[in-house]
Design goal:
Elements: H1 6-15, E1 18-22, H2 31-41, E2 45-49, E3 57-58, E4 61-62, E5 76-79, H3 86-95, E6 100-103, H4 110-118, E7 122-125, H5 129-136
Parallel strand pairs: 1-2, 1-5, 5-6, 6-7
Antiparallel strand pairs: 3-4
Helix pairs in contact: 1-5, 3-4
InterPro entries: CoA-bd, NAD(P)-bd_dom_sf
Protein name: CoA-binding domain-containing protein
Length: about 140
């Protein structure tokens, strides 16, 4: 198990353009909603994924039921899920050859992260892009 370094995270944030945000919420007070809005403001296209909201519009994007129903290829899957719900999504991301797997703060799945790395994916775990972007990109 290897943690992503600051330079690796910076590289990911600079290369990624389209993100599937799994566990998106319509509730503006939820971290997933705040992070989706922030990432959009930073110029990323963020496609929300939540089976309960599938087909609805969220921050200008149509919500997808799962990764397999995404309308375009994505560069990163960002998971806002309870840890016990991550394995199936990680396996779906691996099968779809999504280049980057990002597990949010508190979402720690070492076995899933190892599977993703062995499949050639870049993995960031227990971090939040909304915190990493200002720290690594908008310094000083």
């Amino acid at each position: 198990m290897t943690e992503a370094s600051d330079s690796q995270i910076l590289d990911i944030l600079q290369q990624v353009r389209t993100i599937a945000l799994v566990g998106a919420s319509e509730e503006t007070s939820r971290p997933s909603h705040e992070v989706m809005h922030y990432l959009q403001q930073q110029g990323y296209r963020v496609i929300p994924v939540n089976p309960r909201l599938a087909g609805q519009l969220l921050l200008g994007e149509t919500v997808c039921a799962d990764l397999e129903s995404l309308p375009v290829a994505v560069d990163m899957a960002d998971l806002f899920l309870a840890v016990q719900r991550t394995d199936a999504v990680i396996d779906q991301a691996i099968a779809m050859k999504i280049p980057v797997l990002w597990l949010q703060i508190g979402v720690i799945n070492h076995q899933g992260a190892d599977r993703a790395r062995h499949a050639g994916m870049k993995v960031v775990m227990d971090r939040c892009p909304k915190m990493e972007i200002p720290r690594l990109i908008h310094r000083g």
